[in-house]
Each structure stands twice: as structure tokens, then as C-alpha cells.
Amino acid sequence: MVPAGWAVADGAAAATTRTDAGAAVAAVTTPPMGWASWNTFAAQINYNVIKAQTDAMVSSGMKDAGYQYVNIDEGWWQGTRDASGNITVDTAEWPGGMKAIADYIHSKGLKAGIYTDAGRNGCGYYYPTGRPAAPNTGSEGHYDQDFLQFSRWGFDFVKVDWCGGSAEGLNPRTAYQAISDAIDRATAQTGRPMVLSVCNWGVQSPWDWAPSMSTMWRTSGDIIYWGQTASMDRVLANFDSAQHLAAQSPGHYNDPDMLVVGMNGFSAAQNRTHMGLWAISGAPLLAGNNLATMSAETRAILTNREVLAVDQDPLGRQGVKVAEDLSGRQVYAKVLSGTGRRAVLLLNRTTSPAAITARWSDLGLAGPATVRNLWTGTDSGTFDGGYTTTVPAREAVLLTVTGSGATPSPTPTPTGGSAIKGVGSGRCLDVAGVSQANGAQAQLWDCNG
Fold first, then answer.
1. What pLDDT, on the 0 to 100 scale, is given for residue 19?
2. 334 pairs with which residues across the strands?
3. Which residues are catalytic?
């Protein structure tokens, strides 16, 4: 196989052979965008906290930029049920119950998300953060009942964690299939589909099975745990862990975790790099900062329309590394809709500023091409053969490249011996582990060993 996004012509949608998932994918065709409560508030959430963030999503311009989900994460429920097994909540914290907050979110033209665990106990039981450990905060044994209740309350999105599932030794593929089926049955009764976010941190390689049952699946652990400060090392590690190109297509997304843009520990340049990494990946964009208090600088990063357009491109591709001439100086590219359009991320993982070149042959482009810097919002010019710029240490530059006289995307063609070379790039195909299995990861490299 060749990397996803490089074996089809410009502007063509990638074919998929997966079985269509049911209501658990909620007919989502671009990566979900929204906000989630965990990174800022952990378990210390209630109606007023969520209402304030909902209001801020509207007033900050994030809704207008395309963010639509307000996701209530762990901590909303303390494990209580009535005699019939239905979830009950503290109405002092949630006046009117959970339907009331879902209704408020909907009244602002947004969508509502909620959280549970695949096991009997949620993460708040094993890792209490801001509240005493509460048992029975998971949905095991109540899948049909809970997801029907979530749907009747009006929730459009559900994140299902794996703390209880892990502790109890559940099989993730089996558990999440049962959850997906329960969502389908709930939707059949209520008419309200729910996005299913599989959050089992990459256990048992969900990219191999989750696309048939969900919209998005976590590929690693959290970028930060409660009380920690964000680091670029963790952001890059999560970005790397999400490189499963064959799994991604419109409606199905590798999820490297919620954003930490605007949180303590990151400069503006680091925030832009983080946002660019997620955009080139076509990853879900769930902000985790406090929307009500964020700076104008953070708001501008989160709402940059050109960057968001890269993430939300309708082809649904994930960017692929196309060059690394020197260690740590990397070029990632993503085929965009239209003819001859590419998003390009120049990533400098080293500790010194470095000149990095994007070659048009690596992008499947011929002739001169026009370069635009998406963070400065300026055109850099039209160049023959490639474009070189200096990238600061541990940062990235995000570009669009539009070719004139564009060629189809590189397709490997057998050439003498056992090597397979790309027509446009002349570079060799490298398949991880020399695997012949469907879904094996592959990249193009210089043919010099």
C-alpha cells in the first residue's frame, strides 16, 4: 500500500472498504470541533461552569469559526441510580438535571456532549481529581439504559473512557462494539444520533477496529494529567502515536487527545505549532482551555480560519511525512480538495533553528507553485521546484502550496529489483516491518538505505 492521501488523484475522495458504522458515527463528515471540560476543570464541574463556557464559545467567535460541541467530561455524575437503574444527579449542581444543560447548549446553536466509562467505575474512582472517589460511575451492565438516557436528555456526543474497562480486564473491541450497538438502538428509539468517542488510549490498536463502530478513537494517553503543565515533548509524542493513515477517512478520525492550546506552559509559538500538528493530521479539535478567560492571542490561534480549513478539509485525509533530509527536520504534507492543493507542515524537532525545504516532487506537484503562510496570512511567493525557510527550534511552519500544472499524487511503480518508487518523487516506499497486512503503515524515503 501507499500512504493514505497519496494514491489517488487530486480532489478525489479516498475509497474505503470498511463496513459503515451506524448511529454511533452520527453522520459526521469532518473532524469534530468543540470544547471539553477536563483539561481546565477536571471533576469540578456543574451547570454554571458549563453554562459559562457555552456562553464564551459563542461570544469569543469560536462558534462562528466552526466549533460546535460543548462536552461535559468526567465528574458530572457521582454513580447514583434510582430503583430502576436510571442515572440520577445532584440537582443542586445540575438544576433541572442533565437535560436542562443539554437544552441550554442547544439554545445557543451548539451541540452537547457527555462522558461515561466502559467499565463499572469511571476514572474519577481510580484517580479522583477535585472530588472524593465515587464508585459505580461507569456504564458496564447498563449500556442500553445509559445511552438511551443520554439520547433522551439530548446529548449529541459521548466520550467513553477506559479506566474501568482496563481495571476489570475487559476486551476493548468487544466492549466498544457493544456500546456502539447500544447507541444505534437508542437512536432508533429517539431519532437522535450520538458521536461515539472511543477513549481507550490506543490499547489493542483501536485504529484497526474502531472505524467500523465510532467517529474517533484515542491513539495514546493524555497530553497532560490533572495538575501537570503542558510540554512540547508530550504533544509531539501524541502526534506521533496518531500516525495511522489507513484508518482515517471522512467520518473516522485518529484522535491524539484534546488540545492544550492556551494552557499554562506554552508560548504563542508553541500553541501555533500544536494547532498546526493537529490540523495537518485532520484530527478532532476539542479545546481544553478556559474559554471565558482566554487571551486574544489564544483566541486568534484557535479561530484561524485558514488553519481550521486544513483540519476540516472535506477529503478527510491525514497528513503524511514525505521528507526528512536531516534527522528532526521533517516535512509533512496533506492532499487538500481541489486541484494541486497541499497543506505542508515544516517541523523542526531539533534544538536549533534549521532550514527546511519542501520539494514539489515530494508533494506530487510539477512546475511552479505558490506558497502561503497560514499563521501570518501572507503569500510567500511562487517558486520553482520547492520552498525553503528557517524554522525555529521545536516549532513548525504551516503552509498551503498550490501548484500550477499539477500532477496526480505520487503512485508507487515497480522499478528493477524489489524497490517501489513514486512517479512524482522518485523516492522509495518503506513499509513498516515489511508487512503485507491490510493497514500496514508506509512512507516515502530517499532511496539511499
1. 44
2. 343
3. 161, 222
Answer yes or no: are the C-beta atoms of 256 and 241 closer than 8 Å: yes
DSSP of 169-194, one letter per residue? T--HHHHHHHHHHHHHHHHHHHS---
Helix 268-281 × helix 232-241 angle, to 10°: 0
Grid cell locating 317: 485525509
Q: Retrieve residue 238's grid coordinates.
A: 501524541
Nearest one of 277, 200, 279, 205 to 234, comparing CA atoms: 277
Domain extents in the chain: 23-311, 320-403, 412-445
Asked if the model's pLDDT at residue 433 lies above 90, the reply is no
CA 194/CA 209 separation, integer angstroms: 19
Whole-angstrom distance, CA of residue 148 vs CA of residue 182:
8
Beta bridge partners of 323: 331
Instruction: Select from 213, 210, 332 the least CA-distant residue to 279.
Output: 332
Domain spanning 320-403: CATH superfamily: Golgi alpha-mannosidase II (2.60.40.1180)
Mode of pairing for the β-strands spanning 195-198 and 216-218? parallel
Q: What is the layout of strands, in order, in the sheet containing 33-36?
A: 253-255, 216-218, 195-198, 157-161, 111-117, 69-71, 33-36, 285-287
Residues 351-409: pLDDT tens digits? 999 999 999 999 999 889 999 999 999 999 999 999 999 999 999 999 999 996 554 55
Global confidence as pTM: 0.88
CB 28 within 8 A of CB 217: no
Give the CA distances from residue 51 to residues 37, 71, 175, in Å, rounded to whole numbers and listed in that order: 11, 11, 32
- Find, among 191, 188, 209, 192, the residue nearest to 200 by Cα: 209
Fold of the CATH domain 23-311: TIM Barrel (3.20.20)
Domains 23-311 and 320-403 equal at CATH topology level: no
Neighbour order of strands in the sheet with 420-422? 412-414, 420-422, 428-431, 442-445
| Per-residue buried b or exposed e for 318-351, using 16+ beta carbons within 10 Å of the residue's own CB | bbbbbbbeeeebbbbbbbbeeebbbbbbbbbbee
